[in-house]
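Why should sequence recovery work at all? Because a backbone constrains its sequence more than one might expect. Tight turns favour small or flexible residues, buried strands favour hydrophobic ones, and helices have their own preferences. The token representation captures these environments compactly. In the example below, the structure is given first.
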């Protein structure tokens, strides 16, 4: 498995947002058409057989964890794009 963690030092996720990670148009920024970034990430990672999780860090900020099976990454090995 390949695990990628992205962490920040911002305000973290609202607890209600954590329950809806991966659903479209869920955003705290209030912009029209916003809230698609995590939705797209979750769907691509699921298509590759992986998982996305999000949580708030004890020290403040948030962390998003992407877990992918190595086989999903190796599928394109040897191909030229």
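From this structural description, the recovered sequence reads:
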């Amino acid at each position: 498995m390949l695990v990628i963690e992205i962490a920040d030092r911002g305000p973290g996720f609202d607890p209600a947002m954590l329950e809806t990670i991966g659903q479209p148009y869920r955003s705290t920024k209030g912009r029209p058409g916003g809230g698609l970034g995590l939705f797209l990430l979750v769907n691509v990672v699921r298509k590759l057989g992986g998982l996305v999780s999000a949580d708030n860090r004890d020290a403040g900020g948030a962390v998003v964890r992407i877990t992918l099976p190595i086989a999903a990454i190796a599928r394109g090995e040897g191909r030229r794009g």
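A few observations help interpret the result. The chain has one domain: 2-74.
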